[in-house]
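Exercise (ungraded).
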Amino acid sequence: MSLAAAPPPPAARDRAVRRRPFLVRNARLLLVWGLLLVLLAVYVREAPQFRPREQRTIANSGLTLAVAGLGQTLVVLTGGIDLSVGPMVSLTNSLASSVTDQDSPRSSMWVAGALALLVGAGGGLINGLLVAYGRLQPIIVTLATASVWGGIALYLRPEPGGFIPPAFADLLSGTAFAQQALSLPFGLSWERPLPRAVFFLAALVALWLLFRRTRLATRIYAVGSSEGAAYMSGVHVARAKLWAYTLAGLAAGAAGLVTSAQTSTGNALSGNAATLNSIAAVVLGGASLAGGAGSYLGTLAGAYVIAVIPSVLFFYGVSTFYQQLFQGSILLLAVGLGALGVFRIRNRLERL
Amino acid sequence: MPPLLAATDIAKRFGGVVALDGAAVACEAGEIHALLGENGAGKSTMVKVLCGVQPPDAGEVLYDGRPIAFRNPAAAAAVGIVPVFQELSLIPDLSVAQNLFMGREPRSRIGLIDGRRMRRDAAALLAELGFAGINPAATVRDLPLAERQLVEIAKAVGRKPRVLILDEATSALTARQVEHVFAVVRRLRDAGTAVVFISHRMDEVRDLCDRATVFRDGTHVGTVAVDGASHEQIVRMMIGRALREVFPPRPVPVETASEALLDVRELGWGEALRGVSLTVGRGEIVGLAGLDGQGQGDLLFALFGVYAGVTGQVLLRRRPVRLGDPRAAMAAGLALVPEDRKTQGLILPLSVSNNVTLATLPRIARRGVVSPGAERAATLTMRDRLAIKTAGPEQPVRFLSGGNQQKVSIAKWLLAEPSVFLLHDPTRGIDVGAKQEIYALMRALTAQGHGVLFFSTDLSEIVGLCDRALVMYEGAVVRELAGDDLTDANLVSAAVGVTETAVGGGQRAAATA
């Protein structure tokens, strides 16, 4: 009688646990890319013209932050934070501008470049050792080393100046195919000039996609998501953190070289804004400051959102005095939009 | 045959607390060996010593006849000793596949992780173990607790352990899932794996284990063949005294119908709750039963205001309760002792006294300043009333054993003097002695006129303790059982939907129509 109305036997009830749909999983990522595309569209529409020169300006504007943001992303993924990114950019910029030599620009730039990357990685290694093995709070460690790096930068370069070889500046911040077209196989060729920064951005994305598939990446996510569970799973927690901070230092060193090329000079304060801007880029990109969740693809868009805002405001005639106000408001808005999902959560414990 | 893994004369202390002293256990290959003891007896500490989480202060661990000392869990896993803990070791933000292969991901020739192969291997592993309902690409955070525990077990089994240690690894599973896991464990044993098994469910131990080693107060009490030892004998070894009646006697039924403390009408919440109506009378323990995840937990959360968007009406002492706000629920006289005491019931780093008084701060504070005297007095009263074993009111809760933590979680709400307690599996993962104390406490509460709405995954608790039981299925109450009808058999048949009477089926049809 009632068996017909009875629920199905348990075996049939074993509902498969589904993966959340693509749009839901990547909502934050899509949001920040959408925001960036809107800003770029506004820029192209409002700018008097959009020649290779403007293209280059835009592409260059966010490159330092995009490079430094890669490191900040790694550190934030472990659940940490790196406040020494900006001063490290300044330090390596100051260093590069000081060891170059007008007489042998090419060879001295090689030395300067290698030194900058080495110093960056070394500084990151110190951060990492103090955080991972010294068991100190990342915010305190990097606040302290930020002052140290800044101090060394000022020692190296009390006044702005120094020499950056023009060839190097052009290599990192110039325009490719401006003079001659690139001939491709099958009789094709590329004639439009392209900002060189675009190649570096493509390389950064490729690097991230490869890195994402390494064991180190999985461990960095694991440590940030649940340090205890990672340890119990045999993850070498300290080593994963050490790598994250060291790579962050390396990225800051590379960002210092980008700054050197773009400004063609050395300045002990050149990179300082990169600290908070890189954190803002990571957060805009949808990473969780608690660690374990996020992607560099988001940070990349976040970096360019932060870089493009001043130009867009400029076209609307907004005084530079108010730029920070707008920048901060857009950051709040974007982060707020990303958190909108919280209001749909009906189990309030999940929002915690 | 010499044991595959043997620990002798192990000592371990944490600060002033002796966790192990003269503890020993030996497990042979091809044997399922139970480790029994009350909470705080040192079982978990022993497991941590065996698998390299904590080094012993004294004593020797022999593996394959050779002394070993592991620096970390990875070193133990490398030689084939793999634990599964009650506190899960899964990474919430990673996928099931990433978790299953953590540290041994399949790699392509150039050293990058081969994600496709990893997911395929994960699916094969899950299917082989009979957990095929779990998607390897799903993020662990999105899985219900029971599925996570299955993934945890699959993760350990996938490592092809020589020694598999299951520490309360089945506590969140339904009976059917437990059977599944047991089949896997038996298969491993028959293939020569040594299995160390810890569970508070004695019937599981009886069902699965070959021998049992009993700990009490950190010391080895004895090792017996499970078949040759009676239930009473084992329990006596564990608690050092004879076990009397497990459940407190049920009082003569009072005239419950006349006074409903809690009156729930047509409660709904999305797909999870479909028009649930029930009452809890003064002095009554009402049980929620059914298969795992049929809305019982959601019902408790919805009543306590944790969920937003709940429809229906809740009356407490005939007054409507504003839904969707825990503070309103508290003010009306509801208290929820949640399932997950470590994250929802307690604030682990805070002291016993901070935790006990957290829900009643206004009462022990004057103009916003907490009175230390009142706080201490309240804590000591609760400590004595519930026999909480603690070094003192200032001890952080995280150092207490599971049973004592649960008592603190309950004490917090006792102090608030609610009229109805909502208890979500309050005895999960705690020892027999503490369980009995909680049973007695529940009866004492009802004797004082409180009402209790009680969800348990342990059927014997529903049968032994409740005055009435409501069986839930897919978010609706499908059957009510009371008196002589309240039996294991009736609960099980109602839970899986095989109803014997037209009344049960009719109710279900009405509830889902």
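Further reading is listed at the end of the chapter. For now, observe: Chain B touches chain A through 61 residues (CB under 8 Å). The longest helix of chain B spans residues 175-190.
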